[in-house]
Amino acid sequence: MNTNICAKKLDSLFGPRSCGKPGMVYDRARKGWLCRDHTKERLCEFCHAEKAWARVWHQHQGIAYYPWLCLSCADVRAKAAPP
Question: Average pLDDT, stretch 79-83?
Answer without folding.
Answer: 50
